[in-house]
Amino acid sequence: MYNRSNVESSSMLKSDESPRCDLTFALLAAMKSAVDNGAFSRPMVIDRMNECLGGEKVITRDMFNKWFSVSAPTKFPAEYLPAFCWATQSIEPFVALLLPLDYSPVDGRALTMVNATELAFQAQALLQQSETMFANIMKQAAQATPQQSADITRIK
Question: CB 3.0 to 4.6 Å from 110: which of 25, 44, 97, 106, for a disulfide?
Answer without folding.
Answer: 106
